[in-house]
Write a structure and sequence with these properties.
It is built from 3 helices and 5 strands. The protein is α+β, with helices and mostly antiparallel strands.
Length: 79
């Protein structure tokens, strides 16, 4: 099963996901990124404003970028 990493970035710094998670495919990784982003956005209004310029970069086990998901885009989705 493929392994994916979810790095949090804001243009200045990158918080590395060193453990990652095994998922069936890239589509499942997108849904995991969505869930991770919703958790990050679940704080109070101040927390959400601070996260406005952040995004999740999803990479596979080879370091290939699979998805880039802006947290502001996730806030607008309702799945």
């Amino acid at each position: 099963m493929p392994h994916f990493y979810f790095h949090l970035q804001d243009g200045r710094a990158r918080l590395e996901d060193r453990s990652g998670v095994s998922l069936p495919d890239a589509e499942a990784a997108w849904y995991q990124a969505y869930r991770n982003a919703r958790e990050l956005l679940a704080g109070d209004e101040r927390d959400r404003r601070q996260r406005a310029g952040q995004w999740l970069q999803v990479e596979d086990e080879g370091g290939l970028q699979v998805w880039t998901v802006a947290l502001t885009e996730i806030a607008e989705l309702s799945l």
